[in-house]
């Protein structure tokens, strides 16, 4: 059995995203680090913050990475098997580096904070993301050129994330539906991640990465920069920094997981989007999301039965 853990990106934050973890001792170190970043316990933050705060770029990134780090520690208090592959979608790659032991939970979340601040400083106040499903990539490329946007993420099954200013994203989505897209709409993400609009964030983020000590990963860490395994995080650092302003090919990552013999995939969440993509792209692989389960013991039982 070869397991892959997938760390989710922004967009699926919710009030109960830490509900499975409230009494988990193994998650408390992560919660303490998140509390230092958010100013309050992440469980309380999610239950009491305004909806706009829940989906704000900085807070959303911290929450999503906290979720992955805490779930991983709760499921594998002694560490996951060394053969486990870990990959992350967008800011989820920051979580993947943390889960694999490159950074401590505190350093991981400090870097996420600096990443988000650099992105907010570089981006425009009306920037955002949208999605288009069901059109060929060439058609989506034409639409992004027409509306001054860009493809941010290529996903399996003709699902594309597009970035730009929110008015242009809305117009692009309307045009995509008129051209026959199955679905298209703006997303609740207030930054044009993985597009050249964030070019100004690359150097500050790279400087932040360079200032923190890195360990060699204890798990098989896969980066979206080329869908390759990271042996030396120092050499992979600049690729991680460039990701904030460059297109990500998540379809290539999923394909690489299949090529490396992955037999089971677990999405750490929040949400089920990555699990749904993997189910379509890798039909022979057993795929679940933590959010499919009502208890962590249920997740552990599924893992034990693999």
From TrEMBL:
Keyword Acyltransferase among record annotations: yes
Name this polypeptide is given: Acyltransferase domain-containing protein
Gene3D superfamilies found in the cross-reference section: Malonyl-CoA ACP transacylase, ACP-binding, Malonyl-Coenzyme A Acyl Carrier Protein, domain 2
Classification of source organism: Bacteria, Pseudomonadati, Pseudomonadota, Alphaproteobacteria, Hyphomicrobiales
Gene Ontology, cellular component aspect: cytosol
GO molecular function terms attached to this record: [acyl-carrier-protein] S-malonyltransferase activity
GO biological process: fatty acid biosynthetic process
Coiled coil region boundaries: none
This protein's UniProt keywords: Acyltransferase, Transferase
InterPro entries to which the protein is assigned, alphabetical: Ac_transferase_dom_sf (IPR001227), Acyl_transferase_dom (IPR014043), Acyl_Trfase/lysoPLipase (IPR016035), Mal-CoA-ACP_Trans/PKS_FabD (IPR050858)
UniProt superkingdom: Bacteria
Limits of the Malonyl-CoA:ACP transacylase (MAT) domain: 6-302
Any Pfam family: Acyl_transf_1
Protein's organism: Rhizobium tropici
